[in-house]
Amino acid sequence: MRSFLFASFLFFFTGTLKAQSDSIYIRKIANEVFRHSTAYSNLHTLTKTIGPRLSGSAQTYTAEKWGEEVLKQAGADRVYLQKAMIPHWVRGGRDEAAMISGKNRQNMAVIALGNSVSTKPGGITAPMILIRDFDELEKRKDEIKGKIVFYNHPFNLDFVWMFNAYAEAVPYRVFGASRAAKYGALGVVVRSMSASTDNFPHTGAMIYNDSFPKIPALAVGLQDADKLVAAAATQKDLQLFISTNAHSLPDTVGYNVIGEWQGTANPDQFITVGGHLDSWDPAEGASDDGTGCVQSVEVLRALKATGYKPNRTIRVVLFTDEENGGRGALAYSSEAKSKKEKHIFALESDGGGFTPREFSFKGAETQMASIQPLVHLFVPYGVTAFSMRGAGADVEPLNDSTGALAAELIPDSQRYFDYHHAANDVFEKVNKREVELGAINMAALIYLIDKYGL
Amino acid sequence: MRSFLFASFLFFFTGTLKAQSDSIYIRKIANEVFRHSTAYSNLHTLTKTIGPRLSGSAQTYTAEKWGEEVLKQAGADRVYLQKAMIPHWVRGGRDEAAMISGKNRQNMAVIALGNSVSTKPGGITAPMILIRDFDELEKRKDEIKGKIVFYNHPFNLDFVWMFNAYAEAVPYRVFGASRAAKYGALGVVVRSMSASTDNFPHTGAMIYNDSFPKIPALAVGLQDADKLVAAAATQKDLQLFISTNAHSLPDTVGYNVIGEWQGTANPDQFITVGGHLDSWDPAEGASDDGTGCVQSVEVLRALKATGYKPNRTIRVVLFTDEENGGRGALAYSSEAKSKKEKHIFALESDGGGFTPREFSFKGAETQMASIQPLVHLFVPYGVTAFSMRGAGADVEPLNDSTGALAAELIPDSQRYFDYHHAANDVFEKVNKREVELGAINMAALIYLIDKYGL
Lengths: 454, 454
Prior knowledge:
homodimer; alpha/beta; 8-stranded mixed β-sheet; 12 helices; 16 strands; elongated; disordered N terminus
């Protein structure tokens, strides 16, 4: 009995010491970031000097150069590029439009969805049919032919975590066109994936089903969506005009930009932290995902500045083409597998630079068991839970290909979809301290997993 | 042993049932607020139609009328006014100024502090002395006479909860003038109480010590504060010009606006929820404290809309004069004491309409013991802790006078001091969903305390 008690005491004692030294080290990281972070100034350059950087655009390449530069400045031992063939879809000019035609003529704020085809030159005019959800589409399939389908599936406001509302609504953006084309629709207009109070239309990726004709697809701002609903209620024969020049060019070359910090004890084991460098074209890609990029760079800078020596090799990856292909993530995870690299952990930040709330993971129970006791170390910095909501598009493929635990920073989600893929996703909507808090939590998680393994 | 086990089982069972029915009811409140809240539209009217409402200003009275109206609309049984004599300080026009004089002439963004006296007409010019903290002031007390003291005490960025940085810096705003006047200073300029990246100067209350001459006091924007520091380093004889027409008029009449919802079982017991109706004058008082007012009104509206019947009488109080006197809180707590009202609980929201994080309390251990087990009910809505950081200026006096448990909603604090008492505290900086989440947590806390007592 005595030896048992003694062992318990020792465990308690060393456990407490360990927790204390870790909490002191995380405090040191926090001070470093709050006092000397370059995340916000890097974000300013990325958003204001480079701007939107959709796959294949000229800014894809200036952003890659910027990424190489900031990773070198942050102290990476080695910075290199990893090739991926990326889609090259272009908007084809700013003269996209939608309009209620006829005597109650009214312009609508619209934006073509990524991957959409164009209308015929000069646009098309057709009767509009208002469809609330796919059930209604199926019920009314005989009424679709020759019409423009307006999907008005609103965000479900009851969700607290707004990504749940997004997940529920986004199939209309992604699959709505082909599901309507199956029944002879000529085009679709989708209510924007947002709960904002403004009228910015929100773009984003859509996917055609090759079994059906490719028809043009646009998103409409929320205020105008409500106007369309009101107009549909009073005008039985409402005619909608839509026009877009969007089209796809042949795939082109893009690169993941990778900064490596060589490990000491286990340099052949890898820990990845990243965000995606590409963004949609209407704005600056500040919250999606400039903040994830500059936070990931800051993790490297801050850990180096505090004198940390990593056991494992830490890679900061600025992924290419998250938005309309995921080809960067695929290249990274495929190469990791083909080279039989030993990946321990991969973390991304792609929920905006808002105040941190959680980390969400995708991995095995055993991996979670070793990190779950660490959550208390994050509470002073805003992360109060480790959840299993998934780990995000750029790191989940690595979990699939190598078994690495994958994770995503979960910031507060209330504002994200106000700006997501819309013209107001700009630097000015980002708070310096919130981005820094995210970087602090990310650096702390990388530090702990590098130190203790999984 | 068997009876013990049985009792435990019963306790567990009824405890679980109780928690379930409460979590279901809170979900009902949340749905009501997310779907039908008037908080955001009420805030729009308060900020855009009424605007700034400093004690004694014309808007004090239009805001009171607005408060009466929204409380009636929200379903109060009785709406009435509670008188308080409030200070009436006026800025005296917009031509406040500060300038580095001489050949390197440079204008500074400044704003007079609340309660400050004016300079002599036309302003004053005097040598500037840069002082970092009160220790330095004391050490250099012989150098102060005939000069303008520039207090450059920056926000301590190491704090995560920014109210700690505010608490550390605010004595320079509140007491800096008299402490400098003691040694013969002619005026003071204070670095704004903020960690923002812009140059808006932030006003706020200051207090004179009647033992020393009253000297004018202004706050300067952070970018200009840094310019003053740089200028002081290169110009030994830097002369500063300051000018303000600020002055105090005799006290005037203001009112707490109170909406009462009669209790059923214990109508003579009171639960208070409120925010303050007054605001500083440079902007719209959106985050400070329009949001607290509209959230408090929403608590009443939403609880009524969900069919709740309160056991105790619930009072929504829109306090007058929090900013430069606290006379509304004093009137409310004094009357409660003199009438021997039985106050159970008082909650305020005055930390901005940002995403909720905690509730903070001031009260007895026994009171805390009965609510601490409820925290898990709030976690799905963002409040993850009940802390003891104090309860805020409008409800703490009620704790002092009646022993009521007092509490404050603690929203995320990163953005609050970007806007606090500055020209950018406007409606556009408020996110609809974040305000609503705050109201949901507030309504849930009022519901639980009304239902179970303390």
